[in-house]
Specification:
With 238 residues, the chain is α/β, with parallel strands linked by helices. It contains 13 helices and six strands. It has a six-stranded parallel β-sheet, sandwiched between helices. Helix 7 crosses helix 8 and helix 11 (201-208) packs across helix 12 (210-220). The radius of gyration is 17 Å and the shape is globular. It starts with 9 loop residues before the first helix and ends in an 8-residue tail after the last helix. The relative contact order is 0.19. The model has no long low-confidence stretch (mean pLDDT 89).
């Protein structure tokens, strides 16, 4: 599998996303190293990522590896994309659905962005294939939004966005953006800017949550270098 990331700078990508909100239904994924490893070893369905209409790089490590092959990738983390979308004047007038955060987190988000038209869509504990999952998919597919922030962790959010299309959604764009709302409301803290600039955001998360992140970053993470050497994981931006 080859991931063809979006071309252009952050402003151009944001414009593309806002444009998608007014067109036929599509969804956006934001791959990082963990996502790519699980895609390549088969733990995540590849058709879900292949079905994405836009793939935006969410990893400076991937961008560094791409540079070794002469490929220039713009890194635009999902949390930054979400913040820019909500702050953009161009998105005002759109209805932005929020799927994943609880009612209290949604209320906090609404207070931060009073000019945006936000819609809370309840997300019960989800297990793909369960009756609650199917009901949530149908609820999201039928709701009146132009942009859907799908924030239920990888790979559930990608599976969910894919399932919304299969449920017959015709318009709008779903963004698979993980903990973005938690970062905006302060429920989770992002790495300091220095760590981000040095491509060490992963280290900050490891030090902050060692038990949760040890396997991801220390045991599984280094596999990205082997995948990079023996496969064409990264394609030219489009």
């Amino acid at each position: 599998m080859t991931l063809d990331f979006a071309a252009g700078d952050r402003s151009a990508m944001l414009d593309r996303v806002i444009g998608m909100a007014r067109g036929p239904y599509g969804y956006v994924v934001t791959p990082n190293v963990d996502h790519v490893i699980k895609l390549m070893d088969g733990r995540v369905r590849r058709d879900v990522y292949e079905g994405a209409d836009l793939k935006i790089c969410d990893s400076r490590i991937l961008a560094h590896l791409a540079r070794l092959r002469g490929i220039s990738l713009t890194v635009y983390p999902g949390s930054d994309l979400t913040a820019d979308l909500l702050a953009s004047c161009a998105s005002q007038g759109l209805t932005i659905g929020v799927f994943g955060p609880d009612q209290a987190a949604f209320d906090e988000l609404s207070a931060l962005y009073p000019r945006q038209r936000l819609l809370w869509i309840e997300a019960p504990m989800l297990r793909p294939g369960a009756p609650e999952w199917d009901a949530a998919v149908r609820s999201a597919a039928d709701a009146e939004w132009d942009v859907l922030l799908a924030c239920v962790s990888f790979p559930k959010q990608e599976l969910f966005a894919h399932a919304v299309r299969a449920a017959g959604r015709r318009t709008g764009v779903a963004l698979c953006v993980g903990a973005s709302v938690d970062f905006l409301t302060g429920r989770q803290k992002r790495a300091p800017e220095m760590f981000q600039r040095l491509s060490l955001e992963w280290l900050h998360r490891l030090l902050s949550q060692p038990r949760r992140m040890f396997r991801r970053y220390v045991v599984e993470g280094p596999a990205i270098f082997a995948w990079f050497l023996r496969t064409e994981v990264l394609g030219s931006p489009r």
